[in-house]
Design a protein that fits this description.
8 helices; alpha/beta; 7-stranded mixed sheet; FAD/NAD(P)-binding domain; 307 residues; binds flavin-adenine dinucleotide
């Protein structure tokens, strides 16, 4: 059975940054990657440190990937299905193209991120690629200054995002799926001068060129961009199923070294409670990797002393 010092589950900014650190600490590291990092959606990021003219998500991932492999991190296209705590580490059951395989690790870093809930709209992927539809006001509201902004929501998350966006534009409309009575703070939306419209999803169309609302009996409305505020699914099941501490959204709760409440299991990036940002993912990864290395050094010293 393959045994690693560290297995990193997830190849987004958090997992790849941790792999670079651990590779440079000369650790035997494997990254498991089951598919699309959230960062792959990013057309152009303007708040990622060190890129004053912006960087596309795929290009950033490619750079992070090259950096990790430069320092020896191995990578495997596989989905981690089950994690089991052993006396001196973990067993990880993975699904590969060749079938199920079990591997072992002394420490595991979960960097599995979140998956955004997307509305069932034709051309949604093209619209995201063109930044016509967006998912993260903290990331790119600056690029929407003075635009006609719509927010698609289904509850208070949409209301909070719409209010946040009024820093950037005086023309913000909350397109609410279902009755607006479910919104707990209509007064605050009115104070922020956010228009609120109950809509049916079927009346909304998006594409790379436009966002259009065509409600029956009402004038057609076009918006410059649409923010989705439909929430996301935390990819924390591998830890939560063993009782790892988490909040009511299933975000993992970690200590100051990024260790979850399960000994030896670390977490970094969007899967951890906090701000879902590339800079945060990278910082958490650096902290986790350095603590794991420190503990492996202590184990190395104990093993030497026994010789
Ligand atoms: C449209 C859009 C624009 C954004 N713009 C910005 C921006 O400008 N600035 C910014 O800071 N942030 C931005 N973000 C947020 C940023 O993309 C995330 O904060 C960042 O990708 C989080 O990194 P991560 O490594 O935690 O997770 P992810 O990047 O989501 O990576 C998680 C990885 O784990 C893998 N995985 C999950 N489960 C398993 C499993 N069981 N086994 C194996 N692999 C698994 C996934 O396939 C994925 O590759 C944006 C997000 C979106 C959607």
């Amino acid at each position: 059975m393959d045994r690693y010092e560290v297995v990193i589950i997830g190849a987004g900014p958090a997992g790849l940054t941790a792999a670079t650190y651990l590779g440079r600490y000369r650790r035997r590291v494997l990254i498991l990657d089951s598919g699309r990092s959230r960062a792959a959606w990013i057309p152009q990021s303007h708040n990622t440190p060190g890129f004053p003219r912006g960087v596309g998500g795929p290009a950033l991932l490619e750079n992070l990937s090259q950096q990790a492999s430069l320092y020896g991190a191995q990578r495997r296209q596989a989905r981690a299905r089950r994690l089991t705590r052993m006396a001196d580490g973990f067993e990880i059951l993975i699904d590969t193209a060749q079938g199920e395989v079990t591997i072992q690790a002394q420490f595991v870093l979960l960097a599995t991120g979140v998956v955004d809930r997307l509305p069932d709209l034709a051309e949604i992927e093209a619209a995201i690629g063109a930044a016509r539809v967006r998912m993260c006001p903290i990331c790119d509201a600056y690029e929407a200054i003075d635009q006609r902004i719509a927010v698609l929501g289904e509850g208070d998350l949409g209301a909070r995002e719409a209010a946040f966006l009024t820093t950037y534009s005086s023309d913000v409309t909350l397109l609410h799926l279902g009755a607006t009575e479910t919104l707990s703070d209509l007064a605050s939306l009115s104070a922020h001068k956010v228009r609120v419209e109950p809509i049916a999803l079927a009346d909304l169309s998006v594409g790379s060129e436009r966002v259009r609302l065509s409600s029956p009996g009402a004038p057609v409305q076009d918006f410059d961009c649409l923010y989705l505020a439909l929430g996301c699914e935390m990819q924390s099941r591998l830890a939560v199923q063993w009782g790892a501490a988490h909040d009511d959204q299933a975000n993992l709760i970690v200590n100051s070294h990024q260790e979850t409440s399960i000994e030896g299991l670390y977490a970094a990036g969007d899967v951890v409670r906090g701000l879902n940002q590339i800079a945060v993912a990278a910082a958490e990864a650096a902290i986790a990797a350095t603590d794991i290395h420190k503990r492996l050094r202590a184990r190395d010293a104990q093993a030497q002393a026994r010789l």
